Amino acid sequence: MKYKHKIEEKINFYRSPDKVMKLTRIGSFHQTRLSFMRQLLRRIFSEKWNFLYHDWSLDGNGFGHVVFSVETPSRVYSLVAFSHDLPPNKRSDRVIATEWDLTFALVKGLPSSKEIKKLAKEVPFQEAGRLSENELVLGRANRSVRLWNSVVEKLSSGSQPSMDEVKDVGYLMRTTAVYGSGKFGLADRSTIEAYEEFFAPFQVELLAVFLLRNVVFDLVDYFAKIKGGSKAVTLSNELKKVIGIGNSTGLGMAPFLVHHPELLNKWISARECAVTRVLELESISQGEFDLFKELLSRSLDNARNWKSVSPSQIKRIDVLGSELAELIKFSAEFDFKISKPWLTLFTWVEKKFSLETQELSASLILEPYGKLIDELGSEMSFKSGNMPAINGRRTCAEIRLEIEENFSWAIEVDYEEKDQSARFWYYSQTKLEPRLGERYEEEGSNLEEPLAVGRDIKYFYCQLLEVRGDRLLADYLMEYPEHRLAAKRVLASNSMPYGEIRDNLISKNMKPLDMLRCKLSFFGATKFDPRSDRWVRICMYQNAPLAGSDCSLYDDFWPYPDKS
Amino acid sequence: MYSLGEVEALSKKASKAAGLSWGEAAEVGRAIRNLAKFELPSVEAFTPFLNDLFHRKVHRPNTLEELESNGKPLVGFFLGLNIIDFEFFRPKAEKVKVLRFEKVIQPLTLLGVLLPIVNNDMKLEVFWKNFSFSASPNGHERHGRNHNPNLEQSLSIHFSICKERKLDSFINRIKVKRKDWKNLEELAFKTYVPESKISREKGAGSGDLIDD
Questions:
Q1: In Å, how far are A19, A168, A326, A350, A385 from A344, measured between CA atoms?
Q2: Residue A143 predicted with pLDDT over 90
Q3: pTM
Q4: Nearest CA to CA, how far is B143 from chain A (Å)?
Q5: What is the pLDDT of residue B168?
Q6: Which residue of A has its CA nearest to B194?
Q7: What distance in Å separates the CA atoms of residue B13 and residue B6, rounded to the nearest whole number?
């Protein structure tokens, strides 16, 4: 309880980093009202952003380009999307794919026809193309063939698809990559981080996906019209609302959390600060508790609609369902008028339920408290270029003490045991993406990427035990430069208590999926459907209001749809 | 034109392949980004250093005494790292000083490493023959044509406190000579792991990819 958050110096976090920063727990996170999609939609609808098509240049087969723009209070952005004729045998979500159903770029302003021509020469080629500073995001998407064909068929014959069928898949298209932050020539994050609309993390990428969602709806209507002519109808708004954008996410995303401890710390400390603020409330109102109970009940519906092919995830969802039912009963009889009611309720949940339910409960208790916690959203970014430096005037003895205090989880592991060092992270020569290898079965561990944080800090610690305690770190690092990265992480740990995943990232039992889910939950993703321990399908913006819908009707609780 | 993010990421990998530790390689990436931001030669400033390093032509000092001992030329990058490690967290008043060095190899690499100190409300000025550069939170300027020498006989660094803070403007993209970029790519490639049967089957995770 000694860790402090910058935004509120007096707060002591309820949950320590030792408790929170375990893979199994971060791998059970759910979206919260601080998630980046939630932050973006609150801004879009409170600032009444305008959405408009400026170009719809599709041919009689549905192929060509469209330009869908959004006007914020200060700037205009456009999604330029290219619809392609993709033979079924070329449809693949894998990184090796070279063609997709749809490719897109989010650009600053309204593109001229000359710019669109230029984009048409680059965007469809994705990683093989070159973008410019005017482009913020590059991405691609493939159809969910089953749902797409079925929806086109139904709409073209004048009827709507069934709600169950639509909900079952949850998306008409899924993105297989969404790039930003300077990749392939795109604008660097530093060029837009001063824009108010992009203060929160990943807003520009998530804006592109939000725009894409509407484009996909209009595309499916267009394809139905091509097929059915005058008989065709457009997809109903009721159905559109339950359709999000799918996404396949693999190992490429996992190292991000390790490479950016400053961001991980910002995200998790904001979340934990929010949880602590709510748990410390002395009293709560009937309205606040009723809202919690309502959203709890809707969460049970969500759990029942959460489909997965993963046996372990299916089991977790089953347990979640039965525990939520129990929590609903408990809440119905719970006396919310006691002192610190949320603390009492949450402590009960922590003692009794699985991590999946604990973390969903952590999300749910935040929901009634926008005024109390939403300001934390602006604390979740990290200005590029502000990386912590090394304080070389610290002594080796001081660093040893800090390791003992903050990295006991790392130094207690015996990395000489094969199971504890069974894996290694590497960068694939063929795929140009991070991959996970088996250290004792494969070649390549000599080219290991620096993700074995625990092991590296232990080696640093053991080496420090061999040198004079009063030796200055700057001097030490001249002789032992291999420990520079570990030294930096140790020095940062005091100001970034939630910056490290406190688990062994190269052990035999480590599941990269936990890292993916952590990051995706901060995005606001739902319906996690692991396809192996290394990649996962998710849904984005399912149940969210549509772009351009009535701002006065905006429902901030859209991730928990009302059954009625 | 390349984004600074691309340049930093590739430089980091290339530096690792050239023989630096991951921690030092990250410093190279940031130093290159900083030089580029301030419109100084960046990739081209580090290319000779990385190539020398790769071909084991760089003498790296193991101790402060060795770094400070007279005679051998100082390698700009390692000297810069040592200075920033000592100076970055020093109380502001103690930071104010002038440092002078003789025989510095690739002095721009030193400057790139020192530039983050400007974020700490400090003014940094560096001088060598026919070149001066200053940067502070108020802005930056350079004079002279000798902006990327290989060996400089005399170099001085001035740290002073900057009380005002205005918004400086930086560039966000740079041109990199084709041969320098290729050099970075070739070095970085040495850190990548070739595909194997196991990696094909398990590296990214197995599973049916198209089922809906």
A1: 18, 37, 16, 10, 42
A2: yes
A3: 0.93
A4: 25
A5: 67
A6: A429
A7: 11
Mean pLDDT of the A183-200 span: 91
**Interface touch B172/A190, C-beta < 8 Å:** yes
Backbone angles phi, psi at A247, to 5 degrees: -160, 140
DSSP code for A91: -
Which residues lie below 8 Å from residue A230, measured CB to CB, with a gap of 6+?
none
pLDDT tens track for A198-224? 999 999 999 999 999 999 999 999 999
Q: Edge-to-edge, what's the strand order for the sheet holding B97-105?
A: B74-75, B97-105, B151-161, B122-128, B131-136, B139-143
- Cβ contact B78–A478 (<8 Å): yes
**Three-state secondary structure call for residue A94:** coil
Within 13 Å and on the Cβ side, how many CA atoms surround A468?
5
Sheet of A102-108, strand order = A50-58, A64-71, A76-83, A102-108, A135-143, A171-179, A244-249, A536-540, A526-530
| Termini Cα distance of chain A | 42
| Interstrand relation of B97-105 and B151-161 (parallel, antiparallel or unpaired) | antiparallel
Above 60 in pLDDT, residue A477?
yes
Residue B208 reports pLDDT greater than 70: no
Binning chain B into helix, strand and coil, the percentages to the nearest 5 are: 45, 20, 35
One DSSP character per residue, A201-246 reads TTHHHHHHHHHHHHHHHHHHHHHHHHHHGGG--PPPHHHHHT-EEE
pLDDT band at A327 (very low <50, low <70, confident <90, very high): very high
Cβ neighbour number for residue A385 with a 10 Å cutoff: 16
CA distance A360 to A29: 7
Q: Establish if B4 touches chain A: CB-CB under 8 angstroms.
A: yes
Tokens found for residue A535: 């990649």
Domain boundaries, chain A: 17-28+258-383+514-526, 36-250, 396-492
Rounded distance between C-alpha atoms, residue A33 and residue A31, angstroms: 7
Beta strand residue intervals within A14-84, DSSP E: 50-58, 64-71, 76-83
Q: What is the ipTM of this complex?
A: 0.93
The pLDDT value recorded for residue B205 is 62
Cβ-based burial of B70 (10 A; exposed 0-12, middle 13-18, buried ≥19)? exposed
State pLDDT tens for residues A113-142.
999 999 999 999 999 999 999 999 999 999
Give the position of tokens 């045998």: A89
Chain A residues with CB inside 8 Å of B95's CB? none
Residue A457 near residue A410, CB atoms below 8 Å:
yes
The pLDDT value recorded for residue A90 is 79
Q: Do A390 and B212 touch (CB under 8 A)?
A: no
Which segment of A82-96, A387-401, A463-477 scores lowest on mean pLDDT? A82-96
Residues counted in chain B: 212
The residue-averaged pLDDT of A59-67 equals 96
pLDDT at A153: 97
Relative orientation angle of helices A484-492 and A396-406, to the nearest 10 degrees: 60
User: For the stretch A92-122, what's the b/e string if a residue is b when 16 or more beta carbons lie within 10 angstroms of its beta carbon?
Assistant: bbebebebbbbbbbbbbebbeeebbebbeeb
Q: Mutate which of B3, B8, B35, B122 to disrupt the A interface (most A C-beta within 10 Å)?
A: B3
Q: Residue A54: pLDDT above 80?
A: yes
